[in-house]
Design a protein that fits this description.
Strand content: under 5%
Number of helices: 4
CATH class: Mainly Alpha
Largest sheet: none
Number of strands: 0
Mean pLDDT: 92
CATH topology: Monooxygenase
CATH architecture: Up-down Bundle
Distance between the termini: 53 Å
Radius of gyration: 15 Å
Number of domains: 1
Shape: elongated
Length: 89
Amino acid sequence: MPSLVIEVIGVAAGIIGVLAWGPQIVEVWKHERHDGISLPTFMIVALSLTLWLIYGIAISSKAMIFSNILTLSVIALVIIGVIRIRRRG
């Protein structure tokens, strides 16, 4: 399979992965609900994504770099939103 096709598949997977977190962002930021959200789980996911990002950089995979930066940003939004809500009480 040509490398361009593989990169396009990787980017598509990354975009779908980012979209999968959309409902969580809406719950936290729009509805200000955080019940059922485990911060330790999100921190582990963030660590995993960071390691995948480092791997993507090491192998020069634009798809991996792009998708992991986007997903890390989304995860960070959820983490920040949950912390903000919990601090307010």
